[in-house]
Amino acid sequence: MGLIFSTSGMAQTQIEEDRARLGNSTPLIQQIDPANVRDSERAQADVEEKAAGDGDKLDTSGNLLGNMWGARPWLYKHGITFDIQEVDEVWGNGTGGSASGNDGAGGSGTGPAYDGVTMPTLTIDTEKLFGLKGGLFNVSALQTRGRSISQDHLANFNPVSGFEADRSTRLFELWYQQSFLKGTLDVKIGQQDLDTEFLISDYASLYLNANFGWPMAPSVNLYGGGPSWPLASPAIRIRYRPSEKFTFMFAAADDNPPGNRYNSTPIQQATGSVSGYNSDPTSQTYDGANGTNFNMGTGALLITELQYALNPQPADMSNVTKNPGLPGVYKLGGYYDTAKFADYRYNRNGGSLGAASVNPDSTESDLTPRWDRGNWMVYGIIDQMIWRPSIRSARSVGIFARATGNSGDRNMISFAVDAGINLKAPFRGRDNDTLGLGWGIGRASSGQRQFDRDSGSYVQGNENHLELTYQAQVTPWMVMQPDFQYIWHPSGGVADWTGLRRVGNEAVFGLHSSITF
Predict the structure, then answer these.
(1) How far is the first Cα of the chain from the last one, in angstroms, to the nearest whole number?
(2) For a disulfide at 212, which of 40, 130, 207, 257, Cβ 3.0-4.6 Å?
(3) Which domain holds residue 393?
(4) Residue 22 belongs to some domain of the structure
(5) Is residue 147 part of a domain?
(6) Cα separation of 470 and 476, whole Å?
(7) DSSP 276-331
(8) Radius of gyration of the chain from Cα atoms?
(9) CATH code of 344's domain
C-alpha cells in the first residue's frame, strides 16, 4: 500500500490526505471555514468519482448550477476549476447572555441573529493548462454579512459559530503550490489561511463552535486571531511526507493580518478606552478590510506540526480483503510568534496594570502595558476511529481530543481542551450524515486573573461549552446542520454590561446550511 496522491501528481490537500487516512469516516463537510468546506466537498467528489470509475470525468452532480451549460467541463479539461461556496446561519440565544452594546445596551441578551458567507474560488492545475507538472494556483474572495450573535449578546471566549465575521468584501487567499519528488514534498507560497492545514482535528471539524476549528487560545491570544479565517497572511508552507504514516509541516507567516498593533489583543481592549488605542478589538476590518494590507511589520508566526497515521486506510476500500485495522491520526505541534505582546499584569513602569485601570488619573498610574517579546503555544491532537461494523461499512464511531497550552503573562487563554465523539452514517441510507457530541473548556490565564483581582473585577476562570449537532446531506449540493450549544460561565464568568453581575449561562440554538453552486 503506497502513498496516496492525486492522479495529476500533485500532493493532496491536508483535508484529502486525512480523509483518506481515516477511511472516509470524517464529516462530509469540515466546518472550520469556507475554504475547508470547499476542500472537503472536493475530497468527497473525488472519492465518488473514483468509486464510479470516472476519475478523469468531472462530476457536477454536487453543484447546484450543474455543469453551467458546459462551461465547467470545458474549464476542467484545461485545468481550471471554479467553485462558489455559500454558508448561511440563523442563531438564537434562549437564556443568559448580555444585552448588546451596539444598541446602547438595550435588550435582554437573547434573540435571533443571522450571518452569511459567500466564497468564490478559482483553482488552476498548471499541468493541464500548460504542462507544468505539480503546480497549483489558487485565488479566493469572501463576502461576509449579518451580525455576530457572540459579539452582540454572548460575551464568550470563542464565537458559537466559526463563520461569524465582521461585514466586508475582501480577498481571502492568493497562493501557488508546487510539488516535488513525486508529490512527497510540496511548497506553498502566497497569501494563506493556516487553519486549513495546521491545528486541525478532522473529527472536531464537524462542529460549528469556533473552538473546534482554529482553537480558542490562538484565536484570542494572537494579533487579530492570527492568519486564520476570515484573515489570511503572506506565508510560505513546506510539507514533507516520506511515507504513508508520517507527515511534517512547517510554515512562516505574517502574524498580524490586519496590521493593527494596538487594541488587537484583549488586554489592550481592556485599557484602550483610556489610553487612546483604536476602538475595534476584532480588527478584522481595520486597515485591511479588503484583504490586501499584506502587513509585514509586527512579527513572524513560525508554526510546525508532526503527524503520525495509525493503520492508514487504502485508497480503494472496495477491493480490500484484509482488515487494515481501525485508523487514527496523531499530531504534535507548536508555534512561536516573534512579535511583542502586551503584558496582562504589569504596565511599562513595572506597576500593576489592573490597579492603574481603577485610578487612571493617579500620577503613579500608567495604562500602557509592558511589552513582552515573543509568544508560544504547544498542542496535541488525537483523531481515532474506535468502531465500525465491517471494513466496507460507511458507519463508524470516531473520537477526538485536542489540548493547547502556553504562557500566562501575555495571553488571555493559557490552557484549553476539546473532545468529542462522532457517529458517521447513523441511519440506514444516510451514509454521508454525521451525529456528534462535543465538549470544550478554556482557562483564563494567570495574567488575566491577576488583572481582574487588581482592578476589582470579577475574576475570570473556566468557560465550558457543550455542543450537540447533526450534519445532514439534504441534496448532493446542500448540507443542513441543526445545532444546540450550552455555555457555562461565558468568558470564565465575565461581568455583563452593567458590571454588577456575571453573564448568565447560555442555551443557543442554530441552523446552518452549506450550498455548493
Answers:
(1) 36
(2) 207
(3) 14-516
(4) yes
(5) yes
(6) 17
(7) T--S-SS-TTTTTTTS-----SS-EEEEEEEEEEESPPPS-GGG--S-----EEEE
(8) 23
(9) 2.40.160.180
